[in-house]
Design a protein that fits this description.
There is one protein chain. The protein has about 375 residues and is α/β, with parallel strands linked by helices. About 25% of the residues lie in helices and about 20% in strands. The protein folds into 3 domains: about 55 residues, no CATH class; about 250 residues, Aldolase class I (TIM Barrel, Alpha-Beta Barrel); about 50 residues, no CATH class. A hairpin with a 7-residue loop joins strand 3 and strand 4. The longest helix is centred in the C-terminal third of the chain and has 14 residues.
Amino acid sequence: MALELTGRPHVREALLWRPVEGRPGFVECFLCARRCIIAPGRYGACGVRKNIGGRLYTLVYGLLTAMNIDPIEKKPMYHFEPGSSVFSISTVGCNFYCRFCLNWEISQSRLERGLYGRFVPPERCVETAVEYAADGIAYTYNEPTVFFEYMLDVARLARGRGLYNVMVTNGYMTPEAIELLAPYIDGATVDFKGCGNPEFYRRFMGVPDPSPIFTALLAMKKAGWWIEVTNLVVPKYGDREEDLRRLARWIVENLGEETPFHLLRFHPDYRLLDLPPTPVETLERLAKAAMDEGLKYVYLGNVWGHPLENTHCPRCGYTVIERRGFYITAWRLTKDNRCPKCGYRINIRGRFHGGTASILPVVM
């Protein structure tokens, strides 16, 4: 064991694991909802947590594959600190096996090319974010749950420097993980695929049951995190309106009707290249269904220039925020985020930063 760990700063003992009673050398990881039982010398389903000598280690602590400045709208988060800049980081690995993954080079590296990246200590990560005048840090691109220990350390330091912390996640984490993260994470975009259909998750994502995602969402809400929900609409296999309505109803009943909801257009990638991009008409039909179920803020993603990139006042219909892709092009809210026409308060966390505006904001 000593030889395997010597001189490798990205290998650290993991959190959230325990020995398996009656099975010497085996460990149970309870970081994500898979709760893997891992034999000595073997990996968890994520491919980045390994049982070494009867103890569980993360192999990607600070082993970064990306460090980018993004608009927060790219996550997508439309109602959280709008117009702000976020320092986005990732490692490799994922606890899902999505056949259509856009970032498969890093998320599925355990299958395609092994572990790689550049070690960046948490302190240096936060300093870089500050140097580039970021407003916060996003744990994104691959599933941030799999680099949990590093995320936790960075988030603590970032909070101390006045930066916000947000996750872009598939939501397949345990309540125990959310409890540890709760004091440091400000918001999360939780990504559904295929309208949350269980058979879709099994067939195209290698996930036995999506129900733990709903449990995690409730834990995030209890912790006070800002939540936006996305759903990737995969044509033919993951675009059933009844599934979409079921998901939208759950959000309304459990997270609230003002939860921002993003329907994302699928593009063929990785191992699902035989399907066309999602027809815009399908996205529009599902958006209407989500609104019919009571959601007040429904958006289309990956359809630049579509009217449903914009925010409309739920009371009077006035366009209060215009966007094009990841960029705010017009801001028409009052200083306290109200519609200037009817006074309805738009559900926004934080303030308009103006960083991604391509024209001057209209400040009422």
